[in-house]
Design goal:
elongated, alpha+beta, 8-stranded antiparallel β-sheet
């Protein structure tokens, strides 16, 4: 191997070891990426330029994704990159080594299984995005510490679907809720029970942590007994129809499955189609979060791994 190819090989080895070590905290992702870079190291040693190109793309993809999110949310680069300057610099250095290795080994276009891998990775990156659930508003469907794969391609939303969206009050936050009503529906709650178009809805996924009946939360819509956000005030004022809330076309009424502890449409109003990022498809990892311990193989909820939603 030339000097550039050798640097690319050892870079892939180091990245593979780091990912495999991280499998203690995130078994699925750490193991999969560890194997990918181990195979990339082996392929670079055999002179396959596409292995180096693929390794560079896989490393660079999260940085590009973070850049787009920072630009879209107008958070500024300091929130995303400056706080992680060392990590970003190491990634860019590794990408440089892989690029130089690929240039050294390049012998012109030819078929390689690494091209297939790169294409599949690109499709997966465009169609799915990872998300860690930080709150208990969707218990017991989604728990705190569940790590989700979100299908960002599907935009068709029906009653009962789970959706991932930008919180309309603060778009830097990402929420997961369940759609209970769509445009044209009339919805209300009566003693915690959901009624849709005048008919009680069977909700086996809904959970109630207390038997106490709250005047506003459990008998919605009524005059709020707590502070709610301006869009919810407008909803109560403009969309109240004979004891129901009438959902406008193109809007959704969403609730958390943990009905007694969820910041949802009751408090901030309707969800717009444009705010929806996708639908959670799979729990790829899950960790207990109590006791102040970070994620580890010892806190893994093994029964929730690869659980479809």
């Amino acid at each position: 191997m030339t000097g550039d190819a050798r640097r690319g090989f050892w870079t892939a080895v180091v990245v593979a070891v780091l990912y495999l070590a991280s499998a203690i905290g995130n078994p699925l992702v750490g193991f999969v990426y560890g194997v990918v870079f181990a195979v990339a190291a082996w392929s670079i040693r055999r002179g396959q330029a596409w292995a180096a190109i693929s390794a560079a793309v896989v490393l660079l993809a999260p940085v590009i994704s973070a850049l787009f999110r920072a630009t879209y949310h107008r958070e500024g680069l300091s929130d995303v990159f400056i706080a992680n300057a060392i990590g970003v610099c190491l990634v860019l250095l590794a990408v440089l080594f892989f690029g130089r290795a690929a240039r050294t080994m390049w012998q012109g276009p030819r078929f390689s299984w690494w091209i297939v891998f790169l294409a599949i990775s690109g499709v997966a990156f465009c169609c799915y995005r990872p998300l860690v659930n930080p709150t208990g508003s969707m218990e017991d469907t989604i728990l705190i510490g569940d790590q989700l794969l979100v299908n960002t391609v599907s935009r068709t939303v029906a009653r009962g679907d789970l959706v991932v969206f930008e919180y309309p009050i603060d778009r830097r936050n990402i929420f997961v809720k369940r759609v209970v009503a769509i445009g044209g529906d009339r919805v209300h709650l009566e003693n915690k029970k959901l009624f849709l178009n005048g008919v009680a809805v069977d909700e086996p996924y809904a959970r109630y942590k207390t038997t106490i009946i709250d005047y506003f939360r459990d008998n919605f819509p009524r005059t709020p007994n707590i502070r709610i956000f301006a869009p919810a005030e407008e909803m109560l004022k403009n969309n109240f129809r004979e004891g129901d809330i009438l959902v406008p076309e193109g809007k959704y009424f969403v609730l958390g499955d943990n009905r007694d502890n969820s910041l949802d449409s009751r408090y901030w109003g309707f969800l717009s189609q444009s705010d929806i990022l996708g639908q959670p498809a799979l729990i790829y990892a899950s960790f207990e979060t109590g006791g102040g311990k970070g994620p580890s193989i010892f806190t893994t909820r093994w029964g929730r791994l690869l659980h479809r939603l």
